[in-house]
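To the wet lab folks,

You asked to see what we're planning to order before we commit. Fair enough. Below is the target structure as tokens, and below that is the sequence we designed to fit it. If anything looks off to you, flag it before the synthesis order goes out.
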């Protein structure tokens, strides 16, 4: 359980630091969605709900949106993934990525709606659309890296 949690926290902290990456806030959410999706799908014991809650809370505290939005979104993503886990885990990477697309789009849309409601104003939808496309586009890269880490974690357990 330690590696997925610690690596996600470290990535979140790095992406919250002012390092000057273009689209850094969008990358932060894309990374979180990718990590929660991947670890909940392939190693759910390593990403329990209380860890997802704390990751969402940390993201809320480091971000600029209302507190609690990322917590709710990430817990919903985890619940959806756990619901479909047995069907998805047996599929190939393309099918898993195609399953991630609507989940990422729904998560970003819910984030936008909750931000609008809690801030009492209609926010521009363009950045949220970019965020959804960015999350969908970056997932294969994150999944490849996390798959290698997952195999590295599983190898000592099998020996």
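Sequence we intend to order:
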């Amino acid at each position: 359980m330690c590696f997925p949690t610690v690596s996600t926290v470290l990535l979140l902290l790095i992406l919250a630091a002012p390092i000057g990456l273009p689209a850094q806030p969008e990358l932060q959410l894309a990374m979180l969605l990718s990590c929660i999706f991947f670890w909940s799908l392939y190693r759910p014991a390593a990403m329990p709900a209380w860890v997802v809650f704390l990751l969402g809370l940390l993201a809320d505290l480091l971000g600029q949106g209302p507190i609690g939005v990322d917590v709710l979104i990430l817990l919903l993503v985890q619940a959806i993934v756990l619901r479909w886990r047995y069907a998805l885990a047996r599929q190939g990477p393309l099918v898993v990525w195609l399953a991630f697309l609507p989940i990422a789009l729904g998560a970003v849309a819910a984030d936008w709606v909750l931000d609008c409601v809690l801030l009492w104003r209609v926010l521009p939808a363009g950045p949220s659309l970019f965020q959804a496309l960015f999350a969908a586009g970056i997932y294969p890269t994150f999944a490849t890296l996390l798959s290698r880490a997952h195999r590295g974690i599983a190898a000592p357990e099998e020996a």
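Structural context that might help your review: Residues 94 and 140 are 9 Å apart (CA to CA). DSSP finds six helices and no strands in the chain.

Thanks,
Computational group
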